Amino acid sequence: PRVKAPSCQACNSRLKRIEEEVLIPLALTLDPSDPRSAGVPQRVWRALDPGAAHGEKDRRARASLRKRVQQHAFVPPTSAGQFPGCAPRGSALALPLRATAIGLLGEKLTRVVYWSKFGIYIEQDHAIETHVVARGEDEQRVAEVIRRGERVDVPPGILVAVRRAADDPAAGLVVADFWGRIRLFTSVLPVSSGAE
Q1: Are 185 and 138 in contact, with CB atoms under 8 Å apart?
Q2: Contacts with 72 (C-beta within 8 Å, 6 or more apart), sequence order
Q3: What order of strands is seen across the sheet that includes strand 126-132?
Q4: pLDDT, tens digit (0-9, with 9 covering 90-100), for 109-118
Q5: What gap in Å lies between CA 128 and CA 104, rounded to an integer?
Q6: How far apart are CA 134 and CA 142, in angstroms?
Q7: H or E stretch covering 12
Q8: How does DSSP assign 15-27, residue by residue?
Q9: What is the reported pTM?
Q10: How far is it, in rounded angstroms, from Cα 171 to Cα 9?
Q11: Which residues, listed in sequence order, are joined to residue 128 by a DSSP beta bridge?
Q12: How far apart are CA 183 and CA 49, in angstroms?
C-alpha cells in the first residue's frame, strides 16, 4: 500500500502529478536487469500499456498517460545537458525533468517521510528546499546525513536518510537516492520571522 501524508487542498494540487513528471521518466531510464530496479521498469511499461488494462476506463487512462509521456519525448541535441546517469539506455529519445517538478518530488517525499516515520506534519512555519546533487558534489555532507541519519524503509532501489535537528524536530536534512540515477538533498528549515 502507498504511504500517504495529510495535505491541504492547495498542496495536494501542487504535488499530485509529480510521479508522472519525474518518476516515470526516471523509471524509463532504468536497466530492468539491475537489482536496484526491482521490477520498476516493467511496472511503468505496464502502466503505459492500454493492452494491460482491466477494463475500458483503465484502458483509456493508460492510453492517456502514454500519450502525455510521448508528447514530452524528444531527440536531444548532442550538446544537451543531462543529470549524470539519467540518459535513456539504448535510445536517442529523452524526457525532460523540470527543476520545479524535481523540487516538488523532494518536498512530497520529505512530507511523506516526516509523517510516516516521525508523525510530524511540516507546517508553513518551515520551508522545504530541494537540490539535485551530482555525483562528486557535496559528497561529505550527503555521506554525513546517510551515516548519522535515520534510514527510512522505502521501495527497493530508493535510499532515504533523514538527519533531524536536535532543537527542532521538524527541521532537518533528507537525502534521497532514486535507483542510483538521481540524488536529492532536501532541507527543512524554520522560516525566519524577520524579528531579530
Answers
A1: yes
A2: 25, 95, 96
A3: 126-132, 182-190, 172-178, 158-164, 150-152
A4: 899 899 988 9
A5: 9
A6: 11
A7: helix 9-15
A8: HTTHIIIIIHHHH
A9: 0.75
A10: 23
A11: 188
A12: 29
β-pairing, 158-164 vs 172-178, is: antiparallel
Q: What is the pLDDT of residue 72?
A: 79
Residue 137: helix, strand or coil by DSSP? coil
Contacting residues for 164 by C-beta, under 8 A, at least 6 apart: 118, 149, 150, 170, 171, 172
Residue type, 195: A
Instruction: Please report, as a single letter, which amino acid is at residue 105.
Output: L
Question: What distance in Å separates the CA atoms of residue 85 and residue 154, rounded to the nearest whole number?
Answer: 21
Instruction: At 1, list the grid cell.
Output: 500500500
Distance of CA 104 to the CA centre of its chain: 8
Residue 21: CB atoms within 10 A of its CB come to 20
52-72: b (≥16 Cβ within 10 Å) or e: eeeeeeeeeebeebeeebeeb
Q: Where are the alpha helices (DSSP H) in 19-174?
A: 24-27, 40-47, 56-72, 99-113, 139-148
- Cα dihedral 109, 115, 121, 125 in deg (nearest 10): -40
End-to-end CA distance of the chain: 46
126-162 pLDDT tens trace: 999 998 887 676 777 777 887 888 888 777 788 899 9
CA distance 196 to 187: 22
88 in Cβ contact with 163 (< 8 Å): no
Q: Grid coordinates in use for 39?
A: 521490477
Q: Which residue has the cell 526516471?
A: 26
